[in-house]
């Protein structure tokens, strides 16, 4: 048997950052569900299973210097990239390992007990045996009260594409072609079957199959290979996952997509009633999946979840704050959420937004705003507002203790990532010590960050490096949907973008304790 045991290798998973995996997000999600979270004002331990090229764990380690982070992957090329990045940035609270789930499950690797264990995509992409090793690992290493995040391809939403996945996978079973050719030829066969009237693909437009076929042409080959071609690939019913993790004493807490916790915003009264009638979490989630036709789930579990009293929950909420992650000029009451756009009540939300445009605020400070105090809004209402603003990617919660955390590791990593933007657009996140999380960052923003780190403080000085970066990436600037072609047009557009970053993005970075700083010594 090959060393990969049927897992895709020879093509790396694309670099990505996933903020839902952060300790802050997971602890706040537990708090939102009334479950006692893991305290982050002291040392904690964190493991990412299947870390890919390591951006998520590296950013989180830099943003949470009080934590001890571990990340593991099966593919040597990905592990080497992650190790090199952590070493270059001097992130000494992160250990990146190359080993299998079986080795860890058997205790062959020297590891501590963990407060957090996260995995992105892995649970769907490995076979049943390796899912068993993951459960054994959790039994052995997850602390009581520890939090687990896992996402996976879910049923019934994936049902319509199961034939597509199987046909793509079969093209590579006997090494008939390389991965990209496998995806292309398998997709072509499915299209031909659909056009020929194959009954299995007759409802392609209604089921979303055509959307997946289009994605075969546009998405990165590395993502598609890991999404479709693993021999152990499986789409899962949530009730089966809940029952599997219960064997490791894990209780289902809720979704990491926090907007789903507001069913009144997107479910009918009849649908809410059906959910309320279910006898346990497994059945509720199974029914919810049928209502929403779930194809992807992000689940949070706790080993021995403890419900909090209202007093305990309020005490935790007093330790929370909220900060904008978007420029004030981009803040809107129209909240783009996973459940659809929701119009926030201006009477309640506008005072909060106005306050956050000035600086981050604690929940207690927001509840004390005159307009909200007059409405009788307390900490729990502020928490609900924080959830929806966070889910809309306009703001993010944080724990107040983070304000005192050292910033040096985040600065080193951010300078490194920003410096790479001259040659690569792969690493698209920067670390925020206040949020204890990463912040998505576009190419031109990272070029500006790099220039500011080199004491180039004027936007006019950033235009040439920006132009060089987009030229190397093959990116074409547009204005109003029309491509810019002349040197003068491109220069004017880049100067306007640089000035906008200076006036709008730089204050956000400053509020999140991540404003660019010059290096004071090597590394």
Automatic annotation (TrEMBL):
Biological process (GO) annotations held by this record are: methylation
Coiled-coil ranges (or none): none
Any one GO MF annotation of this record: methyltransferase activity
Do you know which CDD domains this protein is assigned to?
AdoMet_MTases
From which domain of life does this come? Bacteria
**Where is the Methyltransferase domain positioned along the sequence?**
42-163
What organism does the UniProt record list as the source?
A: Herbaspirillum seropedicae (strain SmR1)
Q: What is this protein called?
A: SAM-dependent methyltransferase protein
Q: Methyltransferase regulatory domain: which residues?
A: 222-303
Give UniProt keywords alphabetically: Methyltransferase, Transferase
């Amino acid at each position: 048997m090959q060393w990969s045991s049927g897992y895709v290798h020879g093509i790396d998973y694309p670099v990505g950052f996933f903020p839902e995996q952060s300790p802050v997000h997971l602890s706040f999600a537990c708090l939102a569900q009334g479950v006692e979270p893991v305290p982050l004002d002291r040392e904690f331990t964190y493991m990412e299973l299947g870390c890919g090229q390591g951006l998520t764990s590296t950013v989180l380690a830099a943003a949470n210097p009080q934590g001890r982070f571990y990340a593991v992957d099966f593919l040597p090329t990905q592990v080497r990239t992650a190790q090199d990045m952590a070493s270059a940035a001097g992130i000494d609270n992160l250990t990146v390992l190359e080993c299998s789930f079986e080795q860890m499950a058997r205790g062959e690797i020297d590891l501590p007990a963990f407060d957090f264990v996260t995995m992105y995509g892995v649970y769907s992409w490995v076979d049943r045996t390796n899912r068993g090793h993951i459960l054994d690992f959790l039994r052995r290493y997850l602390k009581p009260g520890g939090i687990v995040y896992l996402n996976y391809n879910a049923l019934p939403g994936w049902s319509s594409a199961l034939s597509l996945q199987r046909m793509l996978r079969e093209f590579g079973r006997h090494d008939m072609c390389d991965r990209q050719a496998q995806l292309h030829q398998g997709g072509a066969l499915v299209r031909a079957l659909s056009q020929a009237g194959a009954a299995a693909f007759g409802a392609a437009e209604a089921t979303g199959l055509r959307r997946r076929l289009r994605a075969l042409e546009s998405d990165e080959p590395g993502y598609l290979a890991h999404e479709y071609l693993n021999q152990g690939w499986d789409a899962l019913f949530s009730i089966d996952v809940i029952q599997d993790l219960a064997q490791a004493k894990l209780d289902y807490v809720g979704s990491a997509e926090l907007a789903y916790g507001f069913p009144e915003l997107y479910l009918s009264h009849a649908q809410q009633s059906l959910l309320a009638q279910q006898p346990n979490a497994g059945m509720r989630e199974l029914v919810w999946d049928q209502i929403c036709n779930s194809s992807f789930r992000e689940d949070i579990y706790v080993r021995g979840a403890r419900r909090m009293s209202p007093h305990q929950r309020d005490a935790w909420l007093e330790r929370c704050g909220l900060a904008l992650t978007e420029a004030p000029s981009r803040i809107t009451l129209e909240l783009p959420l996973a459940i659809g756009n929701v119009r926030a009540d201006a009477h309640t939300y506008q005072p909060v937004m106005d306050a956050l445009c000035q600086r981050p605020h604690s929940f207690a400070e927001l509840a004390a705003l005159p307009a909200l105090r007059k409405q009788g809004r307390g900490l729990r209402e502020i928490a609900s507002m924080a959830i929806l603003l966070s889910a809309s990617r306009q703001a993010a919660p944080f724990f107040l203790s983070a304000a005192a955390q050292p910033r040096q590791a985040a600065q080193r990593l951010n300078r490194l990532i920003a410096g790479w933007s001259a040659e690569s657009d792969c690493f698209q996140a920067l670390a925020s010590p206040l949020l204890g999380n990463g912040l998505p960052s576009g190419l031109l923003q990272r070029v500006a960050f790099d220039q500011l780190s080199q004491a180039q403080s004027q936007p006019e000085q950033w235009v040439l490096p920006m132009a060089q970066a987009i030229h190397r990436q093959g990116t074409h600037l547009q204005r109003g949907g029309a491509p810019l072609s002349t040197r003068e047009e491109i220069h004017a557009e880049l100067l306007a973008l640089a000035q906008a970053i200076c006036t709008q993005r730089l204050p956000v970075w400053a509020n999140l304790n991540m404003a660019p700083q010059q290096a004071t010594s090597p590394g």
